[in-house]
Amino acid sequence: MSARDTAKDIMLARLLASCQELLALPEDKDQAERDYPAGTVNGDDAWREYMAHEEHVYAMARVVLDDAAKMLRDGQVSEPASEASVEDLDGNGSLLLIGTRYQLREQFDKHVVDGVTFDRTRSPFYAGEKWAVRCGGSCLTKKGEWEWEPQPSSRSETFYRRCRFKSLKDAFMAWLKSKETK
Q1: Can you tell me the distance from the alpha carbon of 172 to that of 1, in angstroms, rounded to the nearest whole number?
Q2: How far apart are CA 124 and CA 155, in angstroms?
Q3: What is the gyration radius of the CA atoms in the chain, in angstroms?
Q4: CA–CA distance, 119 with 125 (Å, rounded to integer)
Q5: pTM of the predicted model as reported, rounded to 2 decimal places
Q6: Domain residue ranges in the chain
Q7: DSSP states along 23-46
Q8: Is 58 exposed, middle or buried, given 0-12, 13-18 or 19+ CB atoms closer than 10 A?
Q9: Distance CA 45, CA 78 (A)
Q10: Sign of torsion, CA 8 9 14 19?
Q11: Helix, strand, or coil here: 101?
């Protein structure tokens, strides 16, 4: 596969992932309204987190669309301008940017639906962006153990300290370490 084909595949994957996230927003909103009624303490927290998530999804969609438009307009295929599409943290190019998350390349290539993801997260409960390593409803702790990830309104400060990483590299290295201890 040529570099041109690879760049096209990456852009197509980013566009599809972005579309999936945009299409899921109404369902996510309806679910949040059912699970966390407005005016309740949990409802207010969940609503703030949902609004931050919605804003992030729209912002990332604009970035992906701008990158795709630039590729089409310029008639050239290059790495997306917004951020690197492949992170080479282990020397093997193991991570592929899919919308707002990275997924293991081998799982993406095999169309694994519920595989390991490295998600950039934001929350009103901590400053800035952090990273979560997720797989099938569980998240990885800094100790390299998998634990169930509670609903946003049920997460404590200790949960965030235990299960959020300062950088993508920290998250990836913790995941690599967790594989070694199995």
Answers
A1: 27
A2: 12
A3: 17
A4: 17
A5: 0.49
A6: 3-74, 86-180
A7: HHHHHHHHHHHHHS-TTSHHHHHH
A8: middle
A9: 41
A10: positive
A11: strand
